[in-house]
């Protein structure tokens, strides 16, 4: 890679390994990938004996301690190759001199036990002082859909990860068998001792010890098999992997953004004719997430045979080209998309969606396997279900960022308003946090000069300045998901809005106050009324400090008692 001298600008989002911009993973943070712990600074030190320095004097590059996904993939390959060479060297030495290797191995095991005990003590001490745990956020905000998977899973790093299973017992048994063979060879040269041994064995009624059974190898899990299926299909087919951020498709290899699918496919054909399969899966943390692939024009890379879906091309690669590792009885860990410039349509059920983000959410719904037993909502992974249960059904008022429990919902809402570190939306350029997605977009436009987003409808060419009116327009005009009032045929985007509207036709008042028995047509009206009976008075007069339960009461008080003063309430 050519050094970037004149084109490179120092900044907080620069990769420390290749100077590319737009990175989001910290080089010294603990991550988990495919069940293994990863700290990239440690991997650089162990593999290449390289150390990453940090600036203590401030400046534009003081916070630049990030690493990009392509460099992470290369680092993984290098670390794996080093481990492979070391394992092969151990096996080779043990075959040459098993007795010496056995003694060395016993010493190594004793040292590892001591080191492990010390590591556990240090880990317990660290956990007693460390309260800053990360959280895997499964939010429902449209334009931050895929960015939520990029947060470090530091919570899972509280335990020391297990090392890979090494057949140490098998190596010890092999060494013992070798020693027995040498001793038996010496015994054959001394027949008197041999007969004596036979008499001793005959006199004792002890049975021979049964040979030690070797530990059975664990079967490959379904997740690993489905991941292997996806890797082989990606390598030998024209399924184009991509990620999603806001309205754009992002290349998984070079992180370039594209607004149109045709431009993205041309980029993949021209720039990534050769690629590393593991790099495409780098953002799929711990092997749980599915890889998004565009199967428009899907064909085999070996024989150019076209196919309509991933299952058919997987069977073709296995049967025709001899890749027996593919197991068609296990799912392929990919989400298929057929993307075009006219409409966003599902490749599985042909349903139309308003945007690429909505299409991603709809496609993922075809693969939901984990159901909440309380509310019936379904999720793609077990981690997402656990997060939903902890946030929604724990019976506590917990902040989703710092996991602080509050006695009342009002105190939790007040905490979220004033605690900037718990705000959900973050600018990847300067690190500023925001309470809403709209404020983040305003910040990007005003501070960083990003062009203001415009939402265009692909069905009728109308444009909207914000996303909420655009989605409402698409549901009411171009989809069958709207709710129609049975009395006046008026359309609504949600069932709740339709029910609230229908009450105006029926005059029903199904909500009753338990204190004064007053009836209300809507639930929100009852909640507003309950503040009258509450001891907590939210609204205070700035002049006489009299307290009121409702804002309308405060306004009436200002007009009747302080009409000579003008205040904005």
UniProtKB/TrEMBL annotation:
Keyword Zinc-finger: yes
Region (Disordered): 128-150, 179-223
Residues the record lists as binding Zn(2+): 15, 18, 68, 71
Pfam families membership: zf-AD, zf-C2H2, zf-C2H2_4
Residue stretches of biased makeup (Acidic residues): 139-150
Lineage per the UniProt record: Eukaryota, Metazoa, Ecdysozoa, Arthropoda, Hexapoda
Domain C2H2-type: 370-398, 425-453, 455-483, 483-510, 511-538, 539-566
Database matches in PROSITE patterns: ZAD, ZINC_FINGER_C2H2_1, ZINC_FINGER_C2H2_2
Protein name according to UniProt: Oocyte zinc finger protein XlCOF6 isoform X19
The encoding gene: LOC112047122
Residue span, ZAD domain: 13-95
Top-level taxon of the source organism: Eukaryota
Basic and acidic residues biased stretches: 128-138
Keywords of this entry: Metal-binding, Repeat, Zinc, Zinc-finger
UniProt cross-references to Gene3D superfamilies, sorted A to Z: Classic Zinc Finger (3.30.160.60)
């Amino acid at each position: 890679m050519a050094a970037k001298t004149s084109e490179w600008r120092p900044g907080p989002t620069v990769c420390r390994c290749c100077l590319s911009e737009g990175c989001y993973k910290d080089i010294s943070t603990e991550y988990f990938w495919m069940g293994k712990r990863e700290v990239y600074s440690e991997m650089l030190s162990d593999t290449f004996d390289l150390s990453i320095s940090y600036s203590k004097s401030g400046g534009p590059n003081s916070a630049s301690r990030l690493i990009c996904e392509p460099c992470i993939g290369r680092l993984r390959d290098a670390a794996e190759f080093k481990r492979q060479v070391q394992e092969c060297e151990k096996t080779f030495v043990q075959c040459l001199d098993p007795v010496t290797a056995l003694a060395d191995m016993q010493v190594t095991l004793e040292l590892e036990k001591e080191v492990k005990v010390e590591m556990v003590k240090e880990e317990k001490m660290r956990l007693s002082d460390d309260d800053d745990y990360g959280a895997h956020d499964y939010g429902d905000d449209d334009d931050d859909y895929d960015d939520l998977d990029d947060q470090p899973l530091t919570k899972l790093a509280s335990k020391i990860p297990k090392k890979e299973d090494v057949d140490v017992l098998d190596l010890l048994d092999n060494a013992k068998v070798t020693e027995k063979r040498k001793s038996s060879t010496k015994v054959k040269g001394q027949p008197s001792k041999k007969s004596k041994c036979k008499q001793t064995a005959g006199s004792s009624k002890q049975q021979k010890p049964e040979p030690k059974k070797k530990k059975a190898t664990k079967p490959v899990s379904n997740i690993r098999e489905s991941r292997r299926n996806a890797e082989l299909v990606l390598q030998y087919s024209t399924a184009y992997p991509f990620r999603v951020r806001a309205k754009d498709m992002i290349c998984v290899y070079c992180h370039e953004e594209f607004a149109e699918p045709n431009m993205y496919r041309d980029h993949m054909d021209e720039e990534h004719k050769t690629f590393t399969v593991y790099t495409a899966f780098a953002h799929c943390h711990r092997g749980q997430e599915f890889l998004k692939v565009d199967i428009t024009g899907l064909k085999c890379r070996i024989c150019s045979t076209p196919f309509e879906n991933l299952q058919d091309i997987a069977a073709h690669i296995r049967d025709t080209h001899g890749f027996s590792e593919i197991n068609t009885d296990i799912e392929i860990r990919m989400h298929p998309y057929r993307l075009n410039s006219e409409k966003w349509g599902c490749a599985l059920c042909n349903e139309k969606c308003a945007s690429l983000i909505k299409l991603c959410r709809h496609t993922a719904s075809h693969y939901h396997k984990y159901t909440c037993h309380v509310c019936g909502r379904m999720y793609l992974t077990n981690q997402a279900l656990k997060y939903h249960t902890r946030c929604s059904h724990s019976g506590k008022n917990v902040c989703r960022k710092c996991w602080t429990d509050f006695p009342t919902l009002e105190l939790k809402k007040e905490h979220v308003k004033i605690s900037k570190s718990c705000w959900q939306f973050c600018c990847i350029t300067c690190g500023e946090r925001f309470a809403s997605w709209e404020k983040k977009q305003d910040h990007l436009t005003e501070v960083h000069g990003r062009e203001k987003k415009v939402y265009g409808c692909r069905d009728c060419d109308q444009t909207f300045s914000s996303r909420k009116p655009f989605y409402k327009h698409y549901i009411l005009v171009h989809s069958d998901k709207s709710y129609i009032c049975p009395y006046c045929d008026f359309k609504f985007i949600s069932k709740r809005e339709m029910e609230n509207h229908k009450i105006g036709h029926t005059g029903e008042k199904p909500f009753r106050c338990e204190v004064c028995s007053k009836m209300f047509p809507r639930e929100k009206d009852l909640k507003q009324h309950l503040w009258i009976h509450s001891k907590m008075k939210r609204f205070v007069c700035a002049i006489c400090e009299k307290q009121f339960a409702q804002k309308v009461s405060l306004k009436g008080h200002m007009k009747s008692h302080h009409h000579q003063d003008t205040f904005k309430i």
